[in-house]
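Hi support team,

I submitted a single chain yesterday and got back a structure, but I'm not sure I'm reading the token output correctly. Could someone confirm the output below corresponds to the sequence I sent? I've pasted both exactly as they appear in my results page.

Thanks,
R.
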Amino acid sequence: MKNAKGKVKKQFKMPHLLWIMMGILLLCSILTYIIPAGQFAMAEDGKLLGDQFQFLGYQTPVNPLQAILQIMPGLQGSAAVIFVVMVSGASIEVFLETKCFDRFLDFSLYKMQGKGDILLISVMFFLMGYLGAFGGSDALIAIIPIGILFANKLKLDPIVGLGVSLFATQVGFGTGPTKQFVTQGLMGTKIYGGFFSRFLIMNIFLVVGLIMLLSYVKRIRKNPEKSIMYASGWRPEIAKDAQEDTKTTTLSWKDVVNLVLFFGQFVAITIYGLVGDSSQLFAVMASLMLVVAIVQGLLAGMSADDIGNTFSKGLANMAFVGFIIGLARSVSLVLTAGNVLHTIVYVVTLPLLALPRWISSVGMTLVIALINPIIPSATSKAAILVPIIKPIGEVLQLHPEIIVQAFQFGDGFSNIVSPLLGWTIGGIAMANVSYPQWLKWALPKVLTLVVIACVMIFLLTTVGWTFII
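Hi R., thanks for writing in. Yes, this is the structure output for that exact sequence:
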């Protein structure tokens, strides 16, 4: 682009994700000089006392060098997640190399004669949504290549690929009926109480999410220039025409077995997560995915070297994503070391006491949604926030399960656009979608989901719903 003087005008280019994350890390370092340091009191057993907060009266800043030195502890603290993400990514690389998923999509598209886009997208969205609801963790970042391949087969842009993978799994994760057990434990309510009520709520949000995704699909089908990725060079004609080679496509029994193995492993992981030792979940995931990858490769006729090379390629592809996950954790470590994390939580939650009962649960949802990005870990967030919101809820006479639901709504949806959640920021990097592009598409959806959540929690509070089923 040239300016009035005929000189070439440089266009703004979004920095690489590495520099964005480093910038956020240094910004948090600066905030430790500005935000007053403070702490909540701790009980003898190490539990946080949410009704006892004090400002330290002095600053405990983390200088830029110290902030950078937090990168290694961040990587170490995220080691289990990082390695599971790498192994799951490698396992899926082998699965994709078998080409059984390609043939399954080709077969499905041919059988539907081009009329099954909506059905296929709907099935894929709900499949991924349920996967997120019952087996959700950062390791699900590895299924994003499946979503991208799926979108490419349908001649749709990478945003749709993220829509049926990242977006769907996180909507399921944010509303799943089994995802609030830590919060319920801290609140002293029955674990998995209100399962069927929350299962119904989850499906309502999945339907809303699907409708928003299908609306975008319809828009770019009608006019590809409406695609958020159009300016980045995406064109539907570049994508492989899925109908060209599908007339002779058939599924062999080996393809069917590989598909069953792939989806079956996630079912097994979900069941283990519900009834097994949660401390061993990541170990079970990594081991199972490795074994399944080897079996799938052998079934597909791959040699031992081919399986090894493909697995290695998958590990390498996930290395940067793993680093970003560790870097995101480092940001929280800087805020904690500077003693400003508790201050932020205290200042943001304080206004809840001034709200009337009928609107306070909505306030909780919004407050937790605001705090969520700076404490990406749901377990850590529950450990910090529940001791604070529990006494507030008691003062306002809110049912404990309403508080749990408000926490779940606030904790879930903002994850979709959080730049500090490795699952999100690493996922969009895998799809070659910039954070501003993702934000442009996802933020309106997140705001819509939050508004619906606020209306729902308001109605539940008003009618005195107790999640008895």
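A quick pointer for reading it: The two ends are 61 Å apart (CA to CA). Let us know if anything else looks off.

Best,
Support desk
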